[in-house]
Amino acid sequence: MVGGVEEEFAAAKELLGCMGSNVVYCGAVGTGQAAKICNNMLLAISMIGTAEAMNLGIRLGLDPKLLAKILNMSSGRCWSSDTYNPVPGVMDGVPSANNYQGGFGTTLMAKDLGLAQDSATNTKSPIFLGSQAHQIYRMMCAKGYSKKDFSSVFQFLREEETF
User: Which pTM was predicted?
Assistant: First the structure.
């Protein structure tokens, strides 16, 4: 997600392709960052929703792998459930399978959600769920999750019984 002068983007596109497979020109300077914080806000919200649904299902007696399979063939399917599931033992090769090591850090997610919050304030845009996600990830950082992947929100919810 790149913002800037379109001719400069075109000249740098091949090099940018070394950083990721999807290189998208977004418009003027700042629009790439705008796209990134919007995407990461949605990602945080969907990860929290996935973690909450999985936690509830497990507490209701469902097998986590079975619940993930059902979610992923139903309308609740999303990247957080089918590609990056936050529940240990459901998927291999994701941070939840490695004590939430690696991946995209909780601190970075909290930072991006703070940028989204600031942008929403500046543009007078309501982001009710984005604001709640920001508070959850800030609380996680304060409670020792700062160095873990952002999908550790599942573990955080499992430990928090006061919500």
Answer: 0.92
* Residues 60-93: tens digit of each pLDDT: 999 999 999 999 999 999 999 999 999 999 999 9
Q: What range does the domain containing 137 cover?
A: 37-157
Please state the length of the chain: 163
* Residue 18 belongs to a domain: no
Which one is catalytic: 13, 36, 69, 143?
A: 36
Q: What is the rounded CA–CA span in Å between residue 87 and residue 81?
A: 9
Q: Which residues contact 85 (CB under 8 A, 6 or more apart)?
A: 50, 54, 68, 91, 94, 96, 151
Count of the separate structural domains present in the chain: 1
Is 36 catalytic? The answer is: yes
Q: What CATH number has the domain bearing residue 110?
A: 1.10.1040.10
